[in-house]
Amino acid sequence: MMDYVRKYDPGYFSFVFAFKACISLVISCLIAYYIFENRIAAILAAFGGVYVFFLIFNLGPTSPRKSYVFFFIVVSTICAALFTFLARDALTGNIRDILWLVIPIIVLSFIVGMANAYSLELYKVMASVMMVALVACLYVEAKVALTTLEIVVSMPIGGFIAMFFIFFSFTPHKIYGRYVRTHYPLILNLCTLMIKNIQNPSLYHKEREEALTLIANLKKVLESKSGYIKNPYAIKNIQRAVFYIYRIEELALSINNLHEYTAKEGLNPKLKKELMHNLMQLSDIFSGHVPKITTKELNSFLQEKASKYNAVQVDALKILYLKIKIFSKPYNLAINKQETRANRFDVFKACKVSFMSIGWRNEVYRFSVKYSLAVTIPLIIATSFDLYRGIWMCFGVVATIRPSVGGLHNSGKDYILGNILGALLGIGVAYITHGTLVFYVILAVAIFFMLYTRIYPSWLSTATLVFSLVLFYSLLYYHDYMEFVLQRFIDVITGFVVAIAVFWVIWPRYSYNTLFDQFKKQINELKTMTILLEEGISNAHIDKTLLHSKQSEFLGRNKEIKAIIKESKNEKRFFWIIEESKGVMDALDSILMHLNELTHFLSDSMSKGKDIQLCINDLNIIKIRFDMISNLMTSTPSYFEYDAQDKLLMVDDKYFSWVVKSIFDSQSKLYSIASRYMYY
Fold it and tell me: Over 60: is that where the pLDDT of 225 sits?
């Protein structure tokens, strides 16, 4: 259980965040109740705050989150007031009256889809606005007396108080030091297990995946915090935490390099033991002790046995020891500052980009049209037949909608599973504890976990949300709440079925179609790394921080590709690129590993004053070959030489030549696969 929590909430920051969110909601409810002296205003204030907290979990650390949250509060308040006014006459069953609501919903849902043209973050913001508008309609459908004044005052109160709690850190500065001491040794332990299981592919890849996932989660948490912490002590501690997480990532990548050459032949047992000892010693840094790094076995190996092993394996081993030695050096705040610069949010540019993306063949435009139809069809049908449940059906659409058919299947399965678990558990708890003090305690805890589990898998977050809603409904409609919950479940399932039908029939987009685009992005990422190495030689300084950032993006996109492959298998359309995807990913990973080796080689050569200007020519050849692969994949003229060894200039250094040749081989494999795809 604790391993599961550490995986998704390293440092328990999200737990603290959810606690602050609950305090924020209580404060906003009390203020709204004091102003209007009724529960409706308090509920609206809580409603405005909850969606701000839901939204912030989905926004990336480098996005302009303050701007997006402010934009959401303003737009969602306007939409809530507008849709409340429109829904009063529309939800009567009269087809003429319902058009007053359907047309605005069509327009808003189309805008939500088109927001994807500007950025995924803006799409998430607008999708949350859509949810707020639908909830406003639900209040009207439930005959709740709402006034425009209550909406435009209470919701911003909840939203801005939530925004204050999000971006103002109440965390004591010592927590980050304690955070480092507690969780960084865990990642180093995973690195130790990678060394231990370096010849066991299944265990090794399991430990590597866990280590890289934990590193990615830690970086996301730390970088998201660094933007709005003002306490100088907290700033110092969080910079130290960021600095060391990048050092640990370098270690993990270096171990991965070593694995490529020792997976078959194995690693010398004494060397393996010494490496494990050194990695465990590094954990002492976070307890305030000086690590005792030893190189006795390495020196003995280099003197007596190194000649019997592959020279590349020996170099990979030296690099790993060098990384361990560098890691053990004291942290210097003056020269190690990590900054996270957020992109700016430009409303006018977003409108312009979205408008320019309107076109019959544009994927974003097609998605927007399907989104609009999927949201409005159940509303029209339900209201026309006097079901008064169309808005709930719309919720089923909005909650599960994904661009591809396979993604829709996956989200639908998680959503249905979460609904079933949450509903059953909620009904059971409500039946046993209704009318007792225990019920209210459980309700409060349920609201807390509704906020906290947003970082966990979607089925779990859905289950806690539905569980909270069932308890809330039992409080309002206890005599028939089971029937009410069953009807709501049928409604959201109906909405999901409508979404499946619309996305399957109209311009169906299958996940395997996106594989090609993702592979192109990976190739462009590798080309960018090659360019950075070229520029580093020209400037006599290689920006390792930027290169590590690019490597992290590459590894993060690898996870997306694996998810797409999984979705593609659910679609039952086994296009041959799915079968080739493993070969493509292996080739891309191999190139990433060898570019990482080139980074170490070039940095070491520059520090020793060696002349490596000829390497620019060879790196340029690698870049040109990436260009030719990209040209082939975009159906533009390309000329690719499978054998380009005669064009290399840096031939005297056998290690450099071997690494470049390995990259050439992987590039040739990619071009061959791409050729088969393009002419299939």
Answer: no
